[in-house]
């Protein structure tokens, strides 16, 4: 099980690194700092803390799901789609300055992670709680992205 957890940690933190690498100057860019942002936008350090916690929990969740599921191929395909959406959001939003496409991507990501939560809750039992930080954060992030779309 530890090797699976380590593998998912590598993949998940790799996704964050790639997304950040292709995001350009990200939240520090003039474009972003000049946007009208939601009043509930957390301070910058919260994002790093949140994503670290999320990816630790998600790695354990995915390792247990991978070990327990009878439909490994389906789980891996869904995980790969989740991975690509997660990587894609940063460069779409920050580098391409396209919050509308970013919103489409983050809504798809939110739906997919929520699907994981409900689809596999019976086999994952208590491990499903490990997805809650991800789902909650995605709802917050989606609201932040939507605010940018509608208020700028």
Word description of this protein:
With 152 residues, the chain is mostly helical. The protein has a single domain (2-151), classed as Ferritin. The protein contains 7 helices and no strands. The protein has helices at 2-21, 30-33, 44-68, 72-95, 99-119, 121-124, 132-151. The protein is elongated and about 50 Å long.
Entry keywords:
152 residues, mainly alpha, Ferritin, 7 helices, elongated
Give the overall form: elongated
CATH fold-level label: Ferritin
Write down the domain tally.
Answer: 1
Low-pLDDT segments: none
- State the name of the first-level CATH class: Mainly Alpha
Sheet with the most strands, sense and barrel status: none
Strand content: under 5%
Q: What count of helical segments does DSSP give?
A: 7
Query: How do the helices and strands follow one another from N- to C-terminus?
Result: HHHHHHH
CATH superfamily: TspO/MBR protein
Mean pLDDT over the residues? 95
Q: In percent, how helical is the residue content?
A: over 70%
The CA-CA distance between the termini, in Å, is 47 Å
CATH architecture: Up-down Bundle
Rg from alpha-carbon coordinates = 16 Å
The tally of strands reads 0
Structural class: mainly alpha
